[in-house]
Amino acid sequence: MLIKFESLFTRYKGQNPKTAFAFFRYPLVETWEKPFEELARLAKPEQWGFERSEFKEQKYSNQRFPILTNYLNYTFLRVQELGLIAYSEDEDKACFNTGLLTPEEKEIFATFFANKQCEEKKTIPLDFLYFCRVLFI
């Protein structure tokens, strides 16, 4: 894929969804932060929220993992810039190294699959699949 994306996922209201690399689906009973909650659980323990009240009360008041979501987005932008996103031959799947490690020091990758309905619904071409750890060295 040669398209340069503005962000990993839609970051703000009104952002054209086609400028985002992937859509992070979540079931109706869960929140949009569910994938990041799962990533935080998979990764080494870190402080993924802000401690200072001025950050908590302002821009990030409705987020539990603002540091993690920002980290992941900027990691994606850098990986995209360096051409380090791996695509399957048919471009139906993609993945990149998040730069995060599990407590056992295994690398964590973000994986994506093609959204087969993106043309008809004019949506983002890839859907987030899951975060996974490397099982080999």
Number of strands: 5
Mean pLDDT: 79
Quote the beta fraction.
Answer: 15-25%
Terminal residue distance: 28 Å
Overall outline: globular
Query: Largest beta sheet: what is the strand line-up?
Result: 1-5-4-3-2
Radius of gyration, in angstroms, nearest whole number: 15 Å
Structural class: alpha+beta
Oligomer: single chain
Number of helices in the DSSP assignment: 4
Helix content bin: 25-40%
Structure description:
With 137 residues, the chain is α+β, with helices and mostly antiparallel strands. It has 4 helices and 5 strands. A 5-stranded mixed sheet has the order 1-5-4-3-2.
List keywords for this structure.
alpha+beta; 26% helix; 4 helices; 137 residues; five-stranded mixed sheet
TL;DR of this structure?
This protein is α+β, with helices and mostly antiparallel strands and 137 residues long. The chain has four helices and five strands; from the N terminus they run βαααβββαβ.
Give the helix/strand layout:
Layout lengths: L21 E2 L10 H9 L10 H5 L8 H17 L3 E2 L5 E9 L5 E8 L3 H4 L4 E8 L4
Parallel strand pairs: 1-5
Antiparallel strand pairs: 2-3, 3-4, 4-5
